[in-house]
Amino acid sequence: MKALILVGGFGTRLRPLTLTLPKPLVEFCNRPMILHQVEALAAAGVTDIVLAVNYRPDVMVAHLKKYEEEYNVKITFSVENEPLGTAGPLKLAEEILGKDDKPFFVLNSDVVCDYPFQQLAEFHKVHGDEGTIVVTKVEEPSKYGVVVHKPGHASQIDRFVEKPVEFVGNRINAGIYILNPSVLKRIDLRPTSIEQETFPAMTRDGQLHSFDLEGFWMDVGQPKDFLSGTCLYLSSLAKKSSKLLTPATQSFVHGGNVMIDPTAKIGNNCRIGPNVTIGPNVVVGDGVRIQRSVVLEGSRIKDHAWIKSTIVGWHGTVGKWARLENVTVMGDDVTIADEVYVNGGSILPHKTIKANIDVPAIIM
Amino acid sequence: MSTKALILVGGSQRGTRFRPLSLDLPKPLFEVAGHPIIWHCLTALTKIDVKEVFLIGYYDESVFRDFIRDASKEFPQFVIKYLREYQPLGTAGGLYHFRDVIQKGSPKRFFVLNADVCCSFPLKEMLQLSDDREAEAVILGTRVSNEAASNFGCIVSDPGKRVLHYVEKPESHISNLINCGVYLFDSSIIFKIRKAMEVKAKRIASDPLYDPTEEGSSDDVLRLEQDILGPLADEKNFYVYETRDFWRQIKTAGSAVPANALYLQKAYQSGSEDLPAASATIIPPVYIHPTASVDPTAKLGPNVSIGPRAVVGPGARVKESIVLEDAEIKHDACVLYSIVGWGARIGAWARVEGTPISVTQHTTTVLKNGVKVQSVTILAKDCVVHDEIRVQNCVCLPYKELKKDVANEVIM
């Protein structure tokens, strides 16, 4: 089978992290974001993966080369010369996606969930129409585009209502699809939107179905959601009693949902969790408190620091008795001096912060 | 020749700016650098030949009883007595009221110290200047910034240190040499005060605009600054000794933090044995009461005082702060630029924080988003800060429990 991952541009919404690494390579729960998807696709029998990108950084090419061998898949970069929206990239990759009459997957690179590719493919085969989109239930549908089914039909989509004022349903497009190659005929090679042009046309022909997603779903394209998505992913691992989580028998684990790379070192009298990931070669000192945070590779958290709702970027240093909170994001190689308080700071790479940041601010 | 000394301690109706700490203890007894504010005045008086010290104020007698008992043992070189004014008489009115006690034994001159100043008290130098010039009065002066000067009594002097002009809190710029609230008077000043009272009475009698309900306008109230020092400057026998050493007032509760720093630095520089030496966990100067318990992994200093029976837990950090009697700081907590009140408790990983102020800055407020807030965070008696809670630039009245993060607030 084949798949296309919509990667897009520079991932500006996830800056300052994406100033250092392309978004697909930023580690989500200690593995590059794209790897979660590549792995799930490969497990579902996908052998050809197209990455739809606006640019092709060498570092990404090199990494994906590795994954090609590891997962025995072929990964092709499809580079847009101008942004083609969410549908145009499919046309651009027609040669691969349309090489046989088997359906292909399309997914948004920012979406994390328990990818249901296998079941999705089976469901799609059973109804026999052109496309299936994965939908997820949300509490506040008014912020999204809502899927409305044909009367008396459980999966056939009647229409989409963008940001509904009145309640028409609570299922929204989760950004994961399976489409027959025939759909490519519906798309022109120009900047065009799959949500606003292709799908409405398919629903008019009664060719689009929905598939309910089980479990969590999150678009992790920006730091706040990246942290929320981390919580959801870790909770989902906990439900499955995953071996990836650090056992709660460890004295420092507090409230569970903690994932610590085996090469990381944790000091004495720490309290870590709930909802924390700690990357490779991280060194955490004594008496450190971390909750609802992501600590990326090679960082040092010194003694007695207190960290909550924060992303500590690669090779960062957090000083003794420092306090970070409220979606603070440290770019690569950022140092927070001892005893400093940071409230919602977004700090660009290689900066040293020596004075408090009392209110959320971007530190250039 | 021996001199007497008077320390003006004020009363509970005054010193409201020292709230919330003065709700539980009279300001003169508040401990900075491990000792009550007035203890530092007494220590300065031991450097000169003084046989009698009077505390003048309108607190109840019982307030200073224990302090005087202890101080009398510690300072056997002088007799310490409390003289109570039953109604506020003003700084000069009080001196006049107790003239018999002051003049008993015919001392040539006497010192008057305001209890709420924190300085090195160069009393010897003031005596020397008084001798050299046969001065009727010597005032201690210090230079401050031009902007700050109009908040104080301003002194204009000639190069020979003679005071030419004195104005209390002028509206326009007069001078940046200000009154430190420390005076050395010839005994004859009592007659000057009497004369000033007569003048005032006459003026009141003939003043159609006189309003007896206005503050400070009562017949008996005579203020040293407004009513005595101004006229004294006209008489050409009034001198100023300008100190280059530290000086600041202890008015607001927050000002106790820089005062604590100044007295600790002074004690450390003079090689006091009370203060621990520098180490990995001590950045001097730090004062730790012998009954306090500080975990060896806690880091203290600079400019920290830890009071009796206070407990500082493992991995805690305390900097530029006063931790009072029976307070407890739990493990990994961080306390910066703050006063932790008597019996207050700070939870694990909590952060109690003020804003740095320089010791030469005479205000204790700071602008935050255009709003004036106290720069020093103050937790009054028995306040509780829960684990992991952050308190920044707050003043917290006694017995409050903080369960949520707070910033820039007064918590009633």
Describe what you observe in this structure.
- Chain B: Keywords: Proteasome, Transferase.
- The complex is a heterodimer of chains A (364) and B (412).
- By secondary structure, chain A is α/β, with parallel strands linked by helices.
- Chain A is built from seven helices and 31 strands.
- Chain A has helices at 33-43, 58-71, 88-92, 94-97, 117-127, 194-204, 223-239; strands spanning 2-8, 27-28, 31-32, 48-53, 74-79, 104-108, 111-113, 131-137, 145-149, 157-162, 171-179, 208-212, 217-219, 258-260, 265-266, 271-272, 276-278, 283-284, 289-291, 293-295, 300-301, 306-308, 310-312, 317-318, 323-325, 328-330, 335-336, 341-343, 345-347, 352-353, 361-363.
- In chain A, the strands form seven sheets. A seven-stranded mixed sheet of chain A has the order 5-4-1-6-11-8-12.
- The model of chain A has no long low-confidence stretch (mean pLDDT 91).
- With 412 residues, chain B is of the alpha/beta class.
- Chain B contains nine helices and 34 strands.
- In chain B, the strands form eight sheets. Chain B has a seven-stranded mixed sheet, with helices on both faces.
- In chain B, helix 3 (90-97) packs across helix 7 (189-206) and helix 3 crosses helix 8.
- The longest helix of chain B has 18 residues, at 189-206.
- Chain B is globular, with a radius of gyration of 22 Å.
- Chain A binds chain B through residues 269, 271, 286-289, 303-304, 306, 320-321, 323, 325, 339, 341, 358-359, and chain B through 297, 299, 314-317, 319, 331-332, 334, 336, 348-349, 351, 353, 368-369, 388, 390, 392, 407.
